[in-house]
Amino acid sequence: MSAVIYSTPKFAPAAQSAVNAEPKKGFFARVLDAIIAARTEQAEREVLKYVQRPGGRYPLQ
Questions:
Q1: How many Å apart are CA 53 and CA 20, to the nearest integer?
Q2: What are the pLDDT digits (tens) for 13-58?
Q3: Cα angle vertex 19, ends 17, 21, to 5°?
Q4: How far is CA 17 from the centre of its chain?
Q5: Biggest alpha carbon distance in the chain?
């Protein structure tokens, strides 16, 4: 096994930026994330409406 060590700063920034770079999400992954976020917000609104409705008792007991 062998290892290569670069001591010049010319190679260091490229290696550092590759480590910090996050891969881009594809189109369908972004669409799916948007759908999940929208449905989650809708579900939270529905639960809040259900819990706040009049009825005199806590509906989850």
A1: 48
A2: 555 555 667 889 999 999 999 999 999 999 999 988 888 877 656 6
A3: 65
A4: 21
A5: 74
